[in-house]
Amino acid sequence: MDRSGELGAAFVPFFPLSFDPDALPGPAAIAADRGATVGQIALAWLLHRATAAVPIPDTTSLGHLEEHLAALEIELSEREPAVLDRRGGAAAA
Questions:
Q1: Which stretches within the chain are classed as H helix?
Q2: What is the CA 20 to chain-centroid distance, rounded?
Q3: In a domain, 93, yes or no
Q4: I need a labelling partner for 25 at 20 to 30 A (CA). Which of 4, 34, 40, 89 fits?
């Protein structure tokens, strides 16, 4: 992701939410604190981290779409990206 930003290229992760949320306690704790899903925190982290990211999450229902769109409203605190980065990001992106 960092290199694509340096080159001014878009970063297009397919299925950025395909991970086991139980294996990532950092995102789960942040999600619980915010009343969000781990997937929403993962997308918020990805959008925060990559200046030209175009994530393509698996959206198989209207409910998934609504959940993904709600991630756009999440602004991570100063501390949260560092916590997520240490955990390998939301999906080791």
A1: 2-7, 25-34, 38-49, 62-70, 80-86
A2: 13
A3: no
A4: 4
